[in-house]
Amino acid sequence: MTQAENNAVMYEVKDGVAKLVMQSAPVNALSRALRMGLIDGVTNALQDDSVSTIVITSSLPIFSGGADISEFSGGDLSPMLPEVLDKIEHASKPVVAVLPGPAFGGGLELALACHHRITFASNKVGLPEVNLGILPGAGGTQRLPRLVDAQTALTMIVTGKPTPVTKLPGVFDKISETPESLLADTRDYLSSLNGSNAIKRTCDITLSMDEKTQAVFDAVTQQTQKTTKGFYAPLKCIEAVRGAYTLAFEDGLKNESKLFLACMATPQARAQQHFFFAERAAGHVNDFDKSTPERAINRVAIIGAGTMGGGIAMNFANAGIPVTLLELKEEALEKGLALIRKNYENSAKKGKLTQAQVEARMSLLSGTTAYEDLADVDLVIEAVFEKMEVKKAVFSTLDSVCKPGAILASNTSTLDIDEIATATSRPEDVIGLHFFSPANVMKLLEVVKAEKTAPDVIKTCMKMAKKIRKVAVLVGVCFGFVGNRMIEPYGREANRLLLEGASPEQVDRVLTEFGMPMGPFTMGDMAGLDIGYYVRQSRQEHISHDPAYGAVADRLVEMGRNGLKSGRGAYQYEPGSRVPIPDPEVLDIAKKEAHRLGVKQRSDISDEEILVRVMFTLINEGACILEEGIAAKSSDIDVIYVYGYGFPVYRGGPMQYADEVGLGTILDKLVTYRDQLGDYGDMWLQPSDLLISLAKDGGTFKHYQK
Ligand code: 3H9
């Protein structure tokens, strides 16, 4: 590619200043074309005697989003970013980075390699590589500590969080008050450059590891070990930054590069980079296009002011959208609004909100007991009791009171949206919006399209999700949609293992060691065992006829052991405590049930058996969902599991994890246990057709297209 062919960087010379303007939308990812453009631009400027100063800037609202992540999978990558930055840092003319917007990762590393940096006060920069399972690999771990204190450098690199530029005075030579004053300030700054100050190379600064710095490293290491359990990259970040204090600059760079490559080679890096694109791909759906109109959402109503309804309402108030909560009884309404206020007040106590913000948000919330008050709303979300007849009655009333074009949504977590839609005369306006609890905290939103949901309703809901800071995944209708449908066989298999002689704590330990935030028994106790019991009772005709299905869990509920809320479930709990304590009585119940059902208990259930039977069963259900088209792509399932169920992001989600393990292995292990255990229930451990066919062809879920 020649300079003329390379449009990624525009080059112009005016009044002795060579300007290299990055213009590679959407985020100036430092692709090969952009790197070549920078090298060529700097080379030209150095050769041109009329040029005294070089400016690197951007025509976009962002300086740069960093290295091009899509290039990480391979190809011809020369010139590499460190090489480009070395050339810039060693340029014999002053190089000034002007940041008209944020700089992340390699983008910030590019700025750090320049001799001067200018930006405006409300801008932010960061080194988020750790979120991709890697570390800054273009000198960030060596240059940043040379410009800021060790605590700041370590915090930025280990957490990956963006930092306001005003907190980084050592990094920026000039911070304009506003973006508008940046241009004039840059002009003044450039004209002030002369003499020995004109070239300031970060690499010339020397650092050493004194006692105080060592103490910072010790404290950050300890904290990181606690907060990033299971992740590989964070401790490697610390190791790389340490090199800035203990090695000469060039050796520090070599050390950084070695650690960068070690991170890059891990399954975690593949998983986290997969997840970066998965999250964004969730927004790319085929059900609408650019020409599909969007409906305006200026007023929202929520039916039901319980914990779920209140949490949903908060999302809209947080985004500045007025919400009306409806309850049939005044008392319930007041209780719901008081709970919302309490949640906001708690955030204020923690310093996350000011009292003025609390009041502003509360002023957007109103309550009513009359459906007629919902006549003007643009979107209604029903969050009432999870029973079909109740939901249908609500939708029938909404149909009669809401204006034409209002979107009628159900927050059901399991029920058939097609059937709910039949209660209205406008099924095209009906959709599922499945929020996860606590709804004001959890990022995931399953958007459930029913058979007749109109494309503009789908588009409006997907876009609206972004406004209320949710990650929306579009799914189809089936019992439990994607998330809860998959969790059913996961929990079923865990309960079957209990019946066969495993303890709740062994099963939970295996899953938490895998990286889940809690095991299935702790999760069941927290959610309430009576919920699963109710589902099993109400779906008798749809579920397994195996009498062992849910046997132990059913007995627990019948004994009043409903989980955490009743102080006893699969575990026992001290009053007021959420810490699960193993309960021998549960093992006795399992033993009696096993005896009653003729199930042989075993003492040799291994951790591997637990992982395969519980986790691979979850994956197998994911394969069925993919095959049926309930999820459009496997990465959507991954997004649902990471954001909805705390699946470890360093495994990328269940489907990415399965691809990494190899579908052949997943299939072999499932089949091995199925054959060993015999037919112990309807279709348990039965591999799906998709898993069998992909495994046979050496395929992956990622590349599967229906
Ligand atoms: C790195 O720098 C390594 C170096 O240390 C060492 C190298 C040797 N690459 O998020 P958005 C795409 S690692 C490729 O929706 P926003 C994104 O996929 C990198 N593509 O916009 C999406 O595509 P699509 C360290 C990228 O405004 C589109 O751009 N940097 C990259 O909400 C818009 O993205 C990071 O980790 C990229 N680097 O947020 C920063 N970035 O439209 C990663 C974005 O097809 N990026 N895309 O779905 C971000 O955090 C956000 O994208 C950003 C913009 C804040 C920049």
UniProtKB/TrEMBL annotation:
Where does the record say this protein resides?
Peroxisome
Pathway field: Lipid metabolism; fatty acid beta-oxidation
Query: Which residues belong to any copy of the 3-hydroxyacyl-CoA dehydrogenase C-terminal domain?
Result: 480-573, 611-696
GO BP terms, alphabetized: fatty acid beta-oxidation
Under catalytic activity, the entry for this protein gives: a (3S)-3-hydroxyacyl-CoA + NAD(+) = a 3-oxoacyl-CoA + NADH + H(+)
What keyword terms does UniProt attach to this protein?
Fatty acid metabolism, Isomerase, Lipid degradation, Lipid metabolism, Lyase, Multifunctional enzyme, NAD, Oxidoreductase, Peroxisome
Q: Which Gene3D superfamilies match?
A: 1.10.1040.50, 2-enoyl-CoA Hydratase, Chain A, domain 1, NAD(P)-binding Rossmann-like Domain
Q: Which SUPFAM superfamilies match?
A: 6-phosphogluconate dehydrogenase C-terminal domain-like, ClpP/crotonase, NAD(P)-binding Rossmann-fold domains
Q: Which residues form the 3-hydroxyacyl-CoA dehydrogenase NAD binding domain?
A: 300-476
Q: Name one GO molecular function term.
A: isomerase activity
InterPro entries linked: 3-OHacyl-CoA_DH_NAD-bd, 3HC_DH_C, 6-PGluconate_DH-like_C_sf, ClpP/crotonase-like_dom_sf, Enoyl-CoA_hydra/iso, NAD(P)-bd_dom_sf
Please indicate if the UniProt record lists Transcription regulation as a keyword.
no
- One Pfam annotation, family name? 3HCDH_N
**KW Oxidoreductase (keyword) present:** yes
- The protein depicted here goes by the name 3-hydroxyacyl-CoA dehydrogenase
Name the species this protein comes from: Alteromonas australica
